[in-house]
Write a structure and sequence with these properties.
About 30% of the residues lie in helices and about 20% in strands. The protein is built from 19 helices and 25 strands. The strands form 9 sheets. It has a 5-stranded parallel β-sheet. Strands 14-21-15-16-17 form a 5-stranded parallel β-sheet. Helix 6 (about 180-185) crosses helix 8 (about 205-220) and helix 14 (about 380-390) runs parallel beside helix 15 (about 410-420). Mean pLDDT is about 90; it is low at about 615-628.
């Protein structure tokens, strides 16, 4: 500081570079000075004020020198300035943001003898008098594991501080179906949670559900005003471009929601009479009561999305027709709602159904007659849902899967729940033929499967025709996969392997202005993956219509390798995970009542406090003068 002041007094322009958020150095950290025992801050404060006010001194804090080039009288310095994530022009140092921040860290400036918030000022007399958010260099593994990029550590920290509505708002920035996702997500975030290195992962999915359910409960009780959809519409830019979104599932709805909030005129075309896609027709009520889905969709549509149901691509409209009607961009989110058929002797005729249409019938209230015994072929999540649904319709359900139980692609917790309810599993058996007496199904003949190794060392399945059994059944339901309905698409989109080819970064197809995502690009995928594709498509369409580079500075498709570890200051004492309660198997297997029960308020807060805060979530809605 003294060198800068001396130069400035000589009339020279001085640039004072400091790597910390404020100048003062180690002197500012001291209480007393040796040998006079004078107050350190009393000695340094005049210099701080004089340096900060001098017209010939420019303080560049939170930055480091990278390189110096040139010669005496003509030097060129390159510096690297860290991001404060706070607008230095707007911040007046009032400190109102600090108490709002939910994240606590050890204060390195004070020798880790005290705590500070993630948004902080280095010390009270700091020059410049500006707050800083220290976000760290690495991302939290829970957030990077989420395909939709939900700020997991942020909303968990808010729940821990009982800021439930703020937590929900943060979730909805990347996951508009908060209440749905909190029930059906396969929660890859928990698989990467650093807490599992201490005891068990944080119950992230259940906390998401709690935040969404809290709003609905308050709305029903009239305790608080609900979040009002469309309240920010007057502040949005109004654009003349029209965008068509084809498909009313999670990917299409997400893209439409993002674009309408950017001010575009968005029309959503859906072939069925209701929105929701597989969320509505493929997930039984015992996992997802539809009133939660209806609430989320209504909230999104009310932002200004024009919805046209009962409109099928290729029958009621065409891509060329959309262009002629002035649509500037199209997003294809057709989903994968067709059942994939397999050759099976005796499989044609009555008594043989397919999983997706069966679940759709039940979701629409049409209960098909399936008899007392049902054999379900397949090992994925659809097969599990089909078997558990058949059980609730009064049938004895048996799943036939050609590999072992451990190799089933269905989520292991759903397999265990099905077995608890009474579903039978015949693993390592392959269907051979449907046994009929006349036209009536009598059962399913199966052959024993064995895993063998070929000469090249690769494993393959072989059946032993000498080991055959018959599984008695009145109905056979095949749940062996899903595929997309690509009828109505132009040849120029070049469908490959029943999927549309699209750039994985931008989701643009071979046809300019036409984008595609979700199941029609990925194949059958999860809710969070479809939502992520919807966000990606919305960003690409926004750039396309604004004439910007679609690829520049985009988030990579692959997650980063460098992830945050458990902080040294974290409390790593073992705290048992808070489990949710479920209905007993013998009380839930004959009805479609939701089987999981959400957290109470105290359970949610207790579970949220188990988070190790591997990554700071940033400033959240706290500063009244603006935080970037």
């Amino acid at each position: 500081m003294q060198a800068a002041l001396d130069s400035a007094e000589l009339g020279l322009k001085a640039y004072l570079l400091e790597k910390e958020p404020a100048i003062g150095g180690n002197m500012a950290r001291l209480d007393k000075t040796f040998p006079t025992n004078d107050c350190a801050m009393c000695m340094i404060s005049p210099k701080l004020v004089e340096t900060g006010r001098h017209l010939n001194i420019e303080v560049i804090s939170y930055a480091e020198l990278q390189q110096v080039e040139g010669e005496a009288g003509n030097f060129k310095a390159t510096i690297r300035k860290k991001a404060r994530f706070v607008d230095e022009e707007k911040c007046n140092g009032c400190g109102e943001c600090e108490p709002e921040c939910p994240v606590v860290r050890r204060d390195v400036f004070n020798g880790e003898l005290s705590d500070r918030k993630a948004i902080y000022r280095l010390y009270p007399q700091a020059i410049p008098n500006v707050f800083t958010i220290d976000k760290g260099e690495y991302k939290a593994p829970c957030r990077t594991a989420c395909p939709a990029g939900v700020n997991v550590q942020g909303y968990v920290a808010l729940i821990a501080k009982r800021k439930f509505r703020e937590a929900l708002e943060l979730i909805r920035e990347r996951m508009p179906f908060a209440g749905v996702c909190g029930r059906i997500c396969h929660h890859p975030c928990e698989a990467q949670c650093n807490r599992q290195d201490v005891d068990e992962p944080v119950a992230i999915r259940h906390l998401k559900r709690f935040a969404a359910d809290y709003e609905m409960a308050c709305r029903a009780a009239g305790d608080i005003e609900p979040l009002e959809p469309g309240s920010s519409s007057e502040e949005r830019p109004r654009r003349n471009e029209k965008v068509a979104v084809i498909g009313g599932g999670p990917s299409g709805l997400t893209c439409a929601y993002d674009l309408v909030r950017e001010g575009f005129k968005v029309t959503l075309f859906e072939s069925s009479e209701t929105l929701g896609g597989m969320m509505r027709t493929g997930i039984p009520d015992y996992r997802l009561p539809k009133d939660y889905l209806d609430y989320e969709i209504e909230r999104m549509v009310s932002e200004g999305i024009e919805v046209r149901t009962g409109q099928t691509l290729g029958q009621d409209f065409t891509l060329d027709g959309l262009r002629e009607k002035g649509f500037s961009a199209v997003y294809l989110a057709l989903g994968a709602q067709l059942a994939k058929k397999i050759p099976l002797e005796g499989g044609d005729g009555e008594g043989v159904l397919y999983g997706i249409p069966f679940l759709r019938q039940v979701s629409q209230g049409h209960m098909p007659s399936i008899g007392k015994r049902v054999a379900v072929i397949g090992g994925g999540n659809v097969a599990i849902d089909v078997a558990r649904t058949a059980l609730r319709l009064g049938s004895q359900a048996t799943i036939v899967y050609r590999r072992t139980k451990k190799e089933m692609p269905a989520h292991h917790w759903e397999v265990e729940e099905a077995l608890e309810e009474g579903v039978q599993l015949r693993s390592s058996w392959s269907p051979a033929r449907v046994i009929r007496q006349g036209q009536d199904v009598q059962g399913l003949e199966v052959e024993r499967c064995m895993s063998v190794y070929r000469g090249d060392g690769k494993r393959q399945l072989e059946v032993d025709p000498d080991q055959r059994e018959m599984i008695q059944a009145d109905t056979i339901i095949l749940a062996t996969g899903q595929q997309c309905d690509l009828n109505g698409l132009n040849d120029e989109l070049a469908p490959e392997n029943d999927l549309i080819a699209a750039d994985p970064l931008t989701l643009e197809t071979y046809t300019p202005g036409i984008f595609a995502g979700g199941d029609v690009v990925l194949g059958p995928s999860s809710l969070v993956e479809s939502v992520a594709q919807g966000h990606r498509a919305g960003e690409s369409i926004l750039r396309y219509l604004e004439g910007k580079d679609l690829r520049d500075n985009r988030e990579p498709v692959a997650p980063p390798e460098a992830l945050a570890n458990i902080p040294d200051s974290a409390d790593t004492n073992k705290v048992h995970r808070t489990d949710i309660s479920k209905q007993n198997p013998d009380r839930r297997n004959d009805n479609f009542t939701e089987i999981e029960k959400g957290f109470s308020t105290e359970e949610a807060v207790r579970e949220a406090n188990r988070c190790l805060q591997c990554k700071k979530p940033g400033c959240l809605e706290g500063c009244p003068v603006g935080v970037d």
